[in-house]
Fold each of these.
Amino acid sequence: MEPPGGGAVTDMTVLLNALATVVNYLFQIYFYIVIARAIISWVNPDPYNPIVRFLHNATDPVLNRIRRVLPLHFGGFDFTPIVLLLALEVGRQLLVGLILSLGSMGGY
C-alpha cells in the first residue's frame, strides 16, 4: 500500500501514527480537566465532592509548580491555568508533530 506522499506504509509508521493519536487524546483530556478546574474555582464547590477532589488532585501539582515560578495572581484572579493551557497546547503540537514526523521518515 502506498501513502499519498509516496513510500511504503510500514508497521512502524502505523504504530507511530497510533501513538501520536493517543498522545493527542491525552493532552486534550488534560486540557479539558484544567478548564473544568478553572470553572469550578469560580464557585465555592464542596471540597469533599469526588469530582472536585479529582480535579484538584489532577491539576494542583502542575499549577503549584507554575505558581512558584510565575506568581500570576492579579486582583483576585489566578491566571496560572491560562499559562498551563498554553503550555499544554504548545507541548501537544510539538510532541505530536515530532511523533508524526518520525512516522513519515520511516521510524528513524
Amino acid sequence: MTQHQDATSSAITLKNAYDSHQIWKENLSRAVKAQAAIDTTVIARDDCCDLGRWLYADGQRPLWGKPEFQSLLLHHKEFHLLTGAVAEVINQKQYDLAEAYLSNDTQLAHSSNEVGEAIRRLETAIRA
C-alpha cells in the first residue's frame, strides 16, 4: 500500500470513528430521557469507542509523534472524562443537571467540538 493509500485509509477510518463517537452523546441523552443507568466504566474510558481503539492501535504508531495526533489524543481523553462525569450524574438520578450538561453551550459540547477539530487537523497532517 502506498503512503497516499495509507493516508486515505486513515482519513476514512477517522471519519467513521468520529461519526460513531457522536453516538456517545446521543446515548447520554437517551439515558436521561429514559432515566436509565449508564455503565460509567466504559463511557469514561477513551480506549473503548471506535475512535479510541483507532488511536491506540499499533497501526497508528507512525502518527504518534505528530502534534496533531497528540492533540486529538488529549481532546478525546477529555471528552470521555466529561461523558463519564455526566453518566455519573445520570446514575445519581440528577436528570435535570445531566440535561444541562448535555446542552449546546457546555464544557462537554466544547470538548466534542475540539475532538472534531482535532480530527480535521490530523486528517490534514496525514494528507500532507
Amino acid sequence: MSDEFNENKDDMKLVMDEEPVVPRTNTEKDQMLNRLKRIEGQVRGLQKMIEEDRYCVDVLVQISAVNNALEKVGYSMMERHAKMCVSKAAEEGDGEAYMDELMKVVRQFTK
C-alpha cells in the first residue's frame, strides 16, 4: 500500500471499518490468502535478486509482475465489494454512502 494511500485513508470516511457487510466465505478467504502468499514469495525472490546483485532489467520485470499481481488482488477485492457489500447496502437503503466510499477507494487505487 502506498504511503499516499495511508495518509489519505485517515481522511476518508469509511462506512464500515470492522467487517464486510457480506462476510467472505472460507473459499474466498483461502483464494485471497493463496494469492497473497504467492506474491509474498515473489517479493522474497526480489529480495534475493537484489542480494545477488542481479541484472537491473530482470529485477524490474519481477517488480512489474509483483505490481500486476497486487493490482489483480485489489481489483478482485473491489469487484467483490461492489457486487456484495455495496449491493447489499443499496438493498437496505444505505447504498449511497457505500458507493461514495467505494468511489473514493477506486480513485485512490487507480492513482
